[in-house]
Amino acid sequence: MDVPEGAQEQMELLYGREAWTLLHAWIGEGAVLAVVAVAADGVFDQEEDAFNVDGVRLDYLQLTEEEDGAWSSSVDASAELGDVFGELVHAFEHREHSGSEPLES
């Protein structure tokens, strides 16, 4: 994705040394809406070769270019990946094709 340099730098400042990855971005004139996955410390257990999905959250960001060219960010919502999987399992088990209630942060 061709995220503007200032928006990319703002995400790097926001997440610092956390393990994170940009999953998707909608890019407009002076604005970026982004979905970012962030892994908490200890989310991967090397002894068990297991990944704790409850230690991963999805952040929904809004990044905006200010008049002076600097970028600001706000986290509009967050959801734990375990909750997302739980909703998918529930929908599969009940064959709800119309989807379920949106996750709230």
Tell me what you see in this structure.
The chain is an alpha+beta fold. The chain contains 2 helices and 6 strands. The longest helix has 14 residues, at 81-94. The radius of gyration is 16 Å and the shape is globular. The mean pLDDT is 88.
Describe the secondary structure blueprint for this structure.
Blueprint: H1 5-15, E1 19-28, E2 31-39, E3 44-45, E4 50-51, E5 56-65, E6 71-80, H2 81-94
Antiparallel strand pairs: 1-2, 2-5, 3-4, 5-6
The count of helical stretches stands at 2
* Spatial order of the strands forming the largest sheet: 1-2-5-6
Helix content: 10-25%
Q: What is the number of E strands?
A: 6
Order of helices and strands: HEEEEEEH
Question: β content, as a range?
Answer: 35-45%
Net shape: globular
Residue-averaged pLDDT: 88
Over all CA atoms, what is the radius of gyration?
Answer: 16 Å
How far apart lie the N and C ends? 26 Å
Taking the sheet with the most strands, its summary is: 4 strands, antiparallel
The structural class is alpha+beta
Instruction: List segments where confidence is low: pLDDT < 50 over at least 5 consecutive residues.
Output: none
Q: Which labels suit this protein?
A:
single chain; 105 residues; alpha+beta; four-stranded antiparallel sheet; 2 helices; 41% strand; globular
